[in-house]
């Protein structure tokens, strides 16, 4: 019955992740750590499961035309490199003590994103294309490293940053970030496999999370294309604020 429970968790987590561009890793990792798993084991299990869920989510967003191909390539490659290094690092060192810093940073981004959408003005400038063409590479690498080393964080770091600093539609940001996460998941999994002697993976958890997430992916991708851009941005911001405020309070 264990895998059925995690299949349900995977379904809920992927519905959140696919529709808001974040949440699968944070939701799943939080549950695993609560049940007693170490940070390395939780992150490894989640990323193995995400190989299936992100592939399904990316394909669904591609079919729904929610992906910007140029941004996808510039995010995915450095994201994969960062994820591999993050997984390798976490296999030796538990970074749980650094999560309060990350949560504080994300909480700030959440309020920034909320402000932008509540007081949204027309003619916003795409800062990435004008100011720093390497910004996406830096963002992808950072998001990938934090995601693998912290058991989650790709969506919460990359999604609000792109929405806050570019004029790209929220649905395309979410779709692109979700698709790029497939590369991040694969790279992180390879990193954990290289250190398999140091961690003990529960494959029932991996299978359950992957099954539930894969089933939910197509429905979540359709939802993101229906929601209005401004309202969607506000929902994403509120989700970030709640998730990270809760993490800070618990810490």
UniProtKB/TrEMBL annotation:
It is a multi-pass membrane protein. Keywords: Membrane, Transmembrane, Transmembrane helix. One of its GO terms (cellular component) is membrane. The keyword Transmembrane helix applies. It is found in: Membrane. The chain crosses the membrane at residues 31-50, 71-93, 99-115, 135-154, 174-194, 201-220, 232-249. PANTHER family: MEMBRANE TRANSPORTER PROTEIN MJ0441-RELATED (PTHR43701), MEMBRANE TRANSPORTER PROTEIN YTNM-RELATED (PTHR43701:SF12). This is Unannotated protein. The lineage of its organism: unclassified sequences, metagenomes, ecological metagenomes.
